[in-house]
Amino acid sequence: MLKVGNYQFKSRLFLGTGKYPDFDIQKQAVDQSETEVLTFSVRRMNIYDPSLPNFLEKIDVNQYTFLPNTAGAKDAKEAVRIAKLAAASGRCDMVKVEIIGCDKTLLPDPVETLKATEELVAEGFTVLPYTSDDVVLAKKLEEAGAHAVMPGASPIGSGQGIINPLNLSFIIEQSKVPVIVDAGIGSPADAAYAMELGADGVLLNTAVSGADDPVKMAEAMKYAVKAGRLGYEAGRIPRKDYAVASSPEEGISVGN
Amino acid sequence: MKIMVNGNGLEVREDVKHIKGLIDFLELEDKPLIIEHNQQILQKEEHEKAILENGDKVEIVHFVGGG
């Protein structure tokens, strides 16, 4: 069971809702993933074409915990505003703090992320900051009251997977709050790897929505997260330089 | 009365008195939306109490797909 603040989740896979080919495929992918947490963004509504469909109309919203992000915010003030807008929907008090500090890499602004986390914790939100894979920053976010920390595996949407497993391990070993690896996951192997490192969960979007078959990939990610977690709990064998036979050396039957 | 909605000027009928009236005027009453009125984020029950005046700034936002 994954515990984040007052929330408990059976699934350790959080799923983003951006950039699916269409809502029907998205709905099937969400179903297959068995996720309990869906991320969303907050944007201006097209008031001149209110007939435009919205994914929320396609799903049973009560079945999911909403994790709105603050994407689009450039500083703590904007992030706090977006979080409050999201909360005014009456659907959620969780927020993914996402403050981009570099438009080219989409890497987070650590200073503003920390500020926003402090403010949102004080406002009573359940706060999950998206952060770079820096152990010191993760500690400071935890001290600021973050309910989980979400270090990136690699740049958002890049599908590069886990480029610095050592840094993620440092965070996982030292963190007292759940660590959810967010951003950069490309394949089920990446998700399983994150979980084997000891992450408490994985948040991904493009790896599923951009796959040739998003529905099948959602299912694959579900199993990958479960397999990685089980592997972590089971405890892998140490790596050795040379072979160690798995068949007994005694009692070998020779023909002559 | 002219107000700003999502950054654009909008001429509304004189009988649109409050935010709830604006939502009805725009035929958005069935939509899950969130309103910010002159930088004040409104809870749903406040929509009828939020009186509109000429030059007011209104933001109408909602959840969209995102990661």
* CATH class membership of chain B: Alpha Beta
Q: Averaged pLDDT of chain A, please? A: 95
* Total individual domains of chain B: 1
Sequence of strands across the biggest β-sheet of chain B: 2-1-5-3-4
Q: Helix proportion of residues of chain A, in percent?
A: 25-40%
CATH architecture of chain B: Roll
Largest interface: A-B, 36 and 25 residues
Please indicate the percent range of residues of chain B in DSSP E strands (runs of 2 or more): 35-45%
Please describe what this structure looks like.
The complex is a heterodimer of chains A (256) and B (67). Chain A is an alpha/beta fold and 256 residues long. Chain A has eight helices and ten strands. Chain A has helices at 23-33, 76-87, 110-122, 135-143, 165-174, 188-196, 206-209, 214-234, and strands spanning 2-4, 7-9, 13-15, 37-44, 65-68, 94-97, 126-131, 150-151, 180-182, 201-204. In chain A, the strands form three sheets. In chain A, strands 5-4-3-10-9 form a five-stranded parallel sheet. In chain A, β6 (94-97), α3 (110-122) and β7 (126-131) form a beta-alpha-beta unit. In chain A, α1 (23-33) packs parallel to α8 (214-234). The longest helix of chain A has 21 residues, at 214-234. Chain A is globular. The mean pLDDT of chain A is 95. Chain B has 67 residues and is mainly beta. Chain B has one domain: Beta-grasp domain (Ubiquitin-like (UB roll), Roll), CATH 3.10.20. Chain B is 10% helix and 36% strand. Chain B is built from one helix and five strands, in the order ββαβββ. In chain B, strands 2-1-5-3-4 form a five-stranded mixed sheet, with no helix packed on it. In chain B, a hairpin with a 2-residue loop joins β1 and β2 (8-11). The termini of chain B are far apart. The mean pLDDT of chain B is 93. The interface between A and B is medium-sized, with 36 and 25 residues. β4 of chain A pairs antiparallel with β5 of chain B.
